[in-house]
TrEMBL record:
It comes from Zalophus californianus. PANTHER family: V-TYPE PROTON ATPASE SUBUNIT C, V-TYPE PROTON ATPASE SUBUNIT C 2. The gene is ATP6V1C2. This is V-type proton ATPase subunit C. Keywords: Hydrogen ion transport, Ion transport, Transport. Belongs to the V-ATPase C subunit family.
Amino acid sequence: MAQSVVEVMEDAKGKVPENLLANGGLKEKMKYLKIDLPSFVTHFEWDMAKYPAKQPLVSVVDTLAKQLAQIETDLKSRTAAYNTLKTNLENLEKKSMGNLFTRTLSDIVSKEDFVLGSEYLITLLVIVPKPSYAQWQKTYESLSDMVVPRSTKLIAEDNEGGLFTVTLFRKVIEDFKTKARENKFTVREFYYDEKEIKREREEMSRLLSDKKQQYQTSCVALKKGSSTFPDHKVKVTPLGNPARPAAGQTDRERESEGEGEGPLLRWLKVNFSEAFIAWIHIKALRVFVESVLRYGLPVNFQAVLLQPHKKSSTKRLREVLNSVFRHLDQVAAASILDASVEIPGLQLNNQDYFPYVYFHIDLSLLD
């Protein structure tokens, strides 16, 4: 989900972190704040409304699994449509790049460059190498019969050569092409079709517009110091029904907060939050289940969050924890000191097993 936000916001990657939030995940008055991921984790409370604790664990897991499966299905569908849009746009953009031999000419030529509607005359486009400009000017009228004098004009050029027009009678086209080729002049197969050129330009504009609309964000929604929008208030979309307005917001707030924000980015923000909140509930569930399996019933354990101030202190923290809790599992404690000691029934590497229940939460989703 985070990577999809990065891809959609490719032109504003610096703003990605502020769009990866856990909004609506905390209770009461904090529900409508911008909740960053560490704040959500450190203030985590089990959501009794969504995942009733009185239900069997299998039912809670099933609810989480169905919710995440639906998000994943929608994500695949939406990103596939977005990637198709990007691919079509890139293919059109490629046509407008490259040299004069391969690129589209629809954005270079104009109606005035051609003789149109004539039964006898036709205008051709010829690519001439830069060192041969003078030779072209001297010889193009005599490359074949029936070339209109003074009909050539340079309309575009790149690093290798220039694109010239030349007008001649239709009956000598093949002869002119042959003579041009002998003189290292290349006739581009191009016939001016105003409708086709217009269609291609409109297609490019439409794809650019559609792509931009998928991620374009509002500068109004989070304007600091606004009397209408307090610094922390952001759009909150109710779970399960993105179209339903959030409680506690006026129509004006809702309209302004959504202004300019593309549908794909809006969906990703809401469902990233949904998926993240579900993920942390799964972490809590795993801590509970593993602790009961380790220490038995009645439930007698304490779950805590530990965040080392820096990576270098992680090893020291491990040593202290292993020393303090080694009495909980002597075999595990011994295996940490001696990798040859095997723990019966353990499917993990010994390095992933400790005398205490441990699960890693990595919030560096963009690394």
